[in-house]
Amino acid sequence: MSVVCETSAGWLVDELSLLRKWYQHSTSCQDAAHKKQLYDIKEDLFLILRPHIPVQSTPAPLPILCPETNPGTINQRKKRKRSCAFNQGELDAMEYHKKIIDFIMEGTQPLLQEGFKRLFLRPVLVNDDDHSQTEPRLCNNPCQLAELCNMAKCMPLLNPGEHAVQVLERGIYLPQETNVLSCITENKSECPEVIQFMGEKYIIPPKSTFLMSDVSCMEPLLHYKRYNIIVMDPPWENKSVKRSKRYSSLSPNEIQQLPVPVLAAPDCLVITWVTNKQKHLRFVKEDLYPHWSVKTLGEWHWVKITRSGEFVFPLDSTHKKPYEVLIIGRFKGAGNSTARKSEICLPPIPERKLIVSVPCKLHSHKPPLSEILKEYVKPDLECLELFARNLQPGWTSWGNEVLKFQHIDYFTPVDVED
């Protein structure tokens, strides 16, 4: 993403600006024989002007008296009092919050001040209309990508030598057969490409690669490349996901079985997004990374703000926090990495950093990390995102909904002058 400003604590970043750069077409993409429609990411996906605080639209109901104090209401059920005691998970979260709140407050304020000076942030005006604080919905009925990947489990497995790489060509229509789920798809062009798949259109950014499958069909990825950076946002188990049935979750044991050591090149950076549940954070640092031979280097925080510089949730909220955690580690695979380190003059990975940005309204959409990581890694590295829901130029993306946020409904046509 485009870095608005930087301090020793971290970065204030503009993800919308970066996404727009990804989908800009140069004049070389427009020739007389192949005039193409251009697209831009919808700006209102990042138009969050006010915090996510519920508005009390109706008066609070009067308290209901229980039968002991109101004998006339014999048909009322006595409401069980809710215990005020916190469970262990909540106590752990409160203790963790106490440790990091000062760093988040002190680190965020200078970035916000600079953001106002550079006019990236601005106060909310009375007449400002935030349109909607909710996640935008697709206008059409896109194919159910996750369900399609689940169907593909019935396909016969290919031999390793049969794993082909499908290169996109202009105007390609991906077949409705599920063979697209068994091979890597590349856009080698310098320009975005629009593809049609299962009756829906998706925009593929330039120089991007993807494999759409679930964890049972990762074989093509294992024979493709080894990666220097692996970022993943696992579908952690939690009660909210179970209630909403928004997506399938994986147990810690299933996440542990991911073939990260096979995908990782020596000294690969492994970055895992973690929910604010302390058991997940401890699992990554104490179980998952050691199981993969990954050494923990740092614990960064993504701080979510509005365009007016406020936290999207109160910092002292007991329900949701305005930050998420990234655990950064380094894979220690086979080979002598000591000699390589002496040849590379790069700053070490900081133990703590803040990434401050206006989040996308799309559920579980994480900001890309390429712009802020480049000062800590060599250029032109191989990068992989696991459990991706969108694509990035220069990256390989994998997941059972890897094209979800590439749907054309999240973009708007752009007029091009001749």
From TrEMBL:
GO terms for molecular function: nucleic acid binding; RNA methyltransferase activity; site-specific DNA-methyltransferase (adenine-specific) activity. GO terms for biological process: methylation. InterPro entries: DNA_methylase_N6_adenine_CS, MT-A70-like. GO terms for cellular component: cytosol; nucleus. It comes from the Eukaryota. Belongs to the MT-A70-like family. This is Methyltransferase-like protein 4. The lineage of its organism: Eukaryota, Metazoa, Chordata, Craniata, Vertebrata. The gene is mettl4.S.
